[in-house]
Amino acid sequence: MEEVAQESELQCEHATLQTKVDEFDQLLQRGKEGNLLDHTFRDSTEKLHSAKRELAAKLRSTLSLKRLLEYVPSQAELIQYEFRFSELYTDIQAKHCQTHKYYATYNILLEIKELMLKETSLLNSISSQFKGALTSPAGRRKLIDSMEGILHGTQQKLEKVQIALQSEQKAREALKGKHAAAVSEQRHYNSILKAFQVECARNERLRLKNSQEHLPS
């Protein structure tokens, strides 16, 4: 009886230990599966992060290209820019011509002032010599020689002024010819530009009409 009882007790202990071993094996198996899941999860997470980084890089590249495309002006804008630059160039040329006229006027007035000062000095010199010339023949001869010298200098000055005047007149005629040619060219350019703008608008209308006709119904 005691042997049967011991055997039964041993069987119970064996069953208990076997149950614990099975539970331990299950726990161990679960741990291994958990490690595999963790490893798979880490791989998937890393791939997800890599895909996000790649997507972010492509998004930045797309945004950069979009900004570059936004900076590129359209054909109509280019025409408008060209027209505005042409107007600006015309205004600058007008300001330049006006400034040149101001400088030329200033130089002329300065030269007139110098001539008037010389004339005043000359008249004062003649006036001072005239009183002494009336008292003696030598004084009269000196006055005549002085007047002849003044006349000779005046004639030389007049010749220089006439030469400068002729040169300025030739330059003026040349500038008038250039101005007439430039005005004619500007009119021709404006005519071509207007025709080009009309054709661009017509082309845009045809393009929109063509795109609308090809839309799926």
UniProtKB/TrEMBL annotation:
Transmembrane segments: none annotated. Residues 9-208 form the CCDC93 coiled-coil domain. It comes from the Eukaryota. Pfam families: CCDC93_CC (PF09762). InterPro entries: CCDC93 (IPR039116), CCDC93_CC (IPR019159). One of its GO terms (biological process) is Golgi to plasma membrane transport. This is Coiled-coil domain-containing protein 93 isoform X2.
